Prior knowledge:
By secondary structure, the chain is of the alpha+beta class.
Amino acid sequence: xxxxxxxxxRLDLVAKGIKKNxxxxxxxxxxxxxxxxxxxxxxxxxxxxxxxxxxxxxxLKPESMMLGFYINEITMRLLHKHExxxxxxxxxxxxxxxxxxxxxENVLLRYYECALLQALGYGIVLDYDxxxxxxIKSDEQYIYQFDYGPTNAIKNxxxxxxxxxxxxxxxxxxxxxLSGEICINEAKHLLRSILNxxxxxxxxxxxxxxQSYLRxxxxx
Length: 220
């Protein structure tokens, strides 16, 4: 099983003859739940020796479960094994909790994508022009250059290699105050473009599953 732990990062564990807390009778290990684990490892594949619930999340709604699949997939695809990411672990906990509170899921996903990129060292610049050093202005238009950052100091923006984005969207994203359809869509396009460069050409199964879910929902 794939595990994302606070202090040890991503782990691969196999459950075999484990000890469980007496109150825990089920043999299932649910997604989006927090556990206290113990394991032994002589190689990259460890053996789970103990498991206990430490916090119980409510089951996500079907639509939210699709978002959970996406969050899990990009996290496991991009994280290296055995590298701790305590801040990202907390961001993961936070987004699950906030999804259950019926906050705007499109906005929450953008915040988590930012946190993931920061944790992996692909941190994105959102508050200043990387060419001039000037603070981002809400009424300006910028080109976000991949692996570099936003700038409006480009003579021919149409030919620039990057994503066009407004200063307002950059500032909203940097302060986690994303709102309005235009800004939300711009933020989605920017973050998906950056993530796709790191995810590679292999399609995300969670995206395909979500599209299939939407098609079936329309039919029914």
